[in-house]
Amino acid sequence: MIAEKVILCLVLGLDAAADIRRREIPVLPTVLAGGLMAAELVIRGSRSLPALLCGLLPGAALLLLSLAAKERIGAGDGIAVLCCGCVLDFFQLCPALLCALLAAGLFGLVLARKRKTRRISLPFVPFLAGAVILVLSLEGIFYV
Predict the structure, then answer these.
(1) What does the pLDDT profile of the chain (144 residues) look like in tens digits?
(2) Which residues contact 126 (CB under 8 A, 6 or more apart)?
(3) 127 and which of 99, 100, 116, 133 could share a cystine (Cβ 3.0–4.6 Å)?
């Protein structure tokens, strides 16, 4: 399970760099990495199929929200969260998502005040990558 978490962090790091540079993530490699890691975890028996489906719920919700918001929230963000859900369980992904949303919101507020505008666009995946790394770092402290 540790190898999958390391691969997830690498994938998120590459996605974050692409999101900062181009405001889009490489969808196909992200989906392939998430799918392969999920399949490997289920086949090896480290993760049950119901647990995998629960882990995918936040990403699916964000993807639907992206479609409903007419891409004001990028679909790539939903795909990145789906990839996280392939490796992390629901109770790891929700705190990571909450931390990422809070960090992005605070950063956006500071940036909006500095630029004196209300409408700004921020890449979300860098915040998600940082939050996932934070949650995985704290995992040994809170989980026995």
Answers:
(1) 788 899 999 999 999 999 999 999 999 999 999 999 999 999 999 899 999 999 999 999 999 998 888 767 888 999 999 999 999 989 999 999 999 999 999 999 898 888 877 777 889 999 999 999 999 998 866 554
(2) 16, 19, 20
(3) 100
Residue where the block lists tokens 């993807």: 63
What's this model's pTM, rounded to 2 decimal places? 0.90
Q: What angle do CA 128, 129, 134 make, to 5 degrees?
A: 95
Angle between helix 49-68 and helix 75-87 axes, rounded to 10 deg: 170
Number of Cβ within a 10 Å radius of residue 50? 8
Domain ranges of the chain: 2-142
Number of alpha carbons in the 13 Å side-chain half-sphere of residue 95: 13
Taking the C-alpha atoms of residue 4 and residue 71, their distance in angstroms, rounded to an integer, is 30
125 phi, psi to nearest 5 deg: -60, -35
Rg (C-alpha) for the chain, rounded Å, is 15
